[in-house]
Design a protein that fits this description.
Layout: H1 3-8, E1 13-20, E2 26-29, E3 35-36, H2 42-56, E4 63-65, E5 86-88, H3 89-98, H4 102-112, H5 114-123, E6 147-148, H6 150-161, H7 168-178, E7 203-212, E8 215-224, E9 227-237, H8 241-259
Antiparallel strand pairs: 1-2, 1-9, 3-6, 4-5, 7-8, 8-9
Length: 260
């Protein structure tokens, strides 16, 4: 079954982009369709933070105070910790990516500024991705929210994978955190276990997931032993989460086969 047949009959709406980083072979399906970004917007926030470290000599050891009003629910752990505590920027960034902490994200958004993140997005060539506001719990603010496309996220991952996301050092830092993402892997088959002690896994994935009540995303870079790496973005919305996740796993396996 080809991708068009799979997604034309699947519940919900889908946006898919993938590219083999050696051959240049691409997979595209509604890659410019706009979706709510969910937690994938946390990658551009990380990039803007690291840009300031690289270009403005910001220290990642700078601390921010987490107030009670900063704490929001959803994913993460800071919502359950003591207000008034101080957190280093490096720790907030790690929490934002690895466990997708919404409170850490909002602290960074307030510190960096919405417009600064969007300016960096335009600089990198992402023209359909926007950070509009902080991540809030219900009631949801009216008007358009944070948004993105599979094409934009695929382009961002390509810049990261090739060391062109601000700099090689920034790109390497982003990859290091994305490999520790604890969200469900959808853009590739689960990493196979090594056959021998000390042997690297056949697949290593640097990725960021995102989800809302009726949306499920995964975007990242897939590194494969003995084969070319590829970038992929799978975005979906408009159906129950368990349905979207099941279809996304099928799409991820199909993409991996095509990229092979």
């Amino acid at each position: 079954m080809d991708l068009a047949t799979m997604l034309q009959t699947a519940p919900g709406q889908w946006g898919v982009y993938a590219q083999n980083l050696v051959s240049g072979q691409e997979v595209r399906w509604q890659e410019h369709a706009v979706f709510p970004s969910a937690s994938t917007i946390k990658v551009p926030i990380l990039v803007e933070l690291l840009r300031r470290v690289e270009e403005e000599h910001l220290s990642l050891d700078r601390c921010l105070v987490m107030r009670r009003e900063d704490q929001v629910g959803g994913s993460g752990v800071l919502v359950d910790l003591t207000p008034g505590t101080r957190w280093r920027l490096r720790d907030l960034a790690t929490l934002m990516i690895t466990v997708s902490d919404n409170t850490a994200t909002n602290l960074l958004i307030d510190y960096l500024g919405v417009e600064a993140v969007n300016q960096t997005l335009r600089r990198l060539g992402l023209h359909d991705t926007y950070l509009v506001r902080r991540l809030e719990r219900l009631p949801v603010a009216e008007g358009p929210g944070n948004r993105t496309t599979a094409a934009d996220l695929g382009h961002l991952m390509r810049l990261v994978a090739t060391g062109r996301c601000i700099s090689q050092a920034v790109s390497d830092y982003v990859v290091r955190l994305l490999t520790r993402c604890q969200g469900p892997l959808l853009i590739a088959p689960a990493s196979s276990r090594p056959r021998f002690r000390g042997e690297p896994p056949a697949i290593r994935v640097a990725h960021k997931t995102g989800s809302l009540v009726d949306a499920r995303h995964d975007v990242g870079i897939v590194y494969r032993v003995g084969r070319a790496p590829y970038v992929a973005a799978i975005l979906s919305q408009g159906a129950p989460d368990e349905v979207l996740r099941r279809v996304a796993l099928r799409v991820g396996r199909w993409v991996a086969h095509q990229m092979g």
